[in-house]
User: Which sequence fits this backbone?
């Protein structure tokens, strides 16, 4: 057996070269497939939203709780004048609601959009879209629950030209 002095010792290369190719491939496989930081512990995509709202809005706070319960990270930013925020993100008046959420990729989620719809959209964004909106304040949407009443409402895809398409109905949500 040969003694190594510290000048000859190459960590971790020394140990890796002593093992065969299978060990090297296994090590690479482990490093590549365990270093994906874009997935949560549950295997879902890591989603975070900055939510622009007023400090005193109770339904916005309830919607934030809904998003957090769905493993969406929320950064709350309070503003007194949300029109400035809505103008910044080019949200047309027909698409406005009480709060505006923006993903790290720049997609906008206006109002009480269900977390499941946000996750579905971010997994497969619609080309040339800005994001989703639930215009107004429909009863039964997340944060606006009232006496077990669940009105059917539309979740719309917003496009930069101010147009929209129906993305899904609330009755399609789980």
Assistant:
């Amino acid at each position: 057996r040969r003694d190594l002095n510290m000048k000859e010792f190459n960590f971790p290369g020394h140990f890796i070269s002593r093992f065969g190719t299978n060990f090297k491939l296994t090590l690479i496989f482990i490093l590549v497939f365990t270093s994906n930081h874009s997935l949560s512990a549950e295997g879902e995509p890591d989603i975070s939203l900055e939510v622009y709202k007023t400090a005193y809005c109770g339904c916005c706070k309830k919607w934030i709780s809904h998003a957090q319960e769905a493993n969406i990270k929320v950064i709350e930013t309070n503003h007194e004048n949300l029109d400035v925020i809505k103008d910044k993100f080019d949200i047309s008046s027909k698409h406005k609601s009480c709060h505006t959420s923006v993903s790290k990729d720049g997609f906008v989620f206006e109002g009480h959009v269900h977390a499941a719809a946000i996750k579905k959209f971010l997994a497969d964004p619609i080309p040339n879209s800005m994001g989703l909106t639930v215009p107004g304040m429909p009863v039964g949407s997340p944060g606006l629950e009232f006496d077990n009443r669940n009105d059917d409402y539309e979740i719309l895809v917003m496009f930069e030209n101010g147009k929209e398409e129906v993305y899904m109905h609330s009755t399609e949500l789980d």
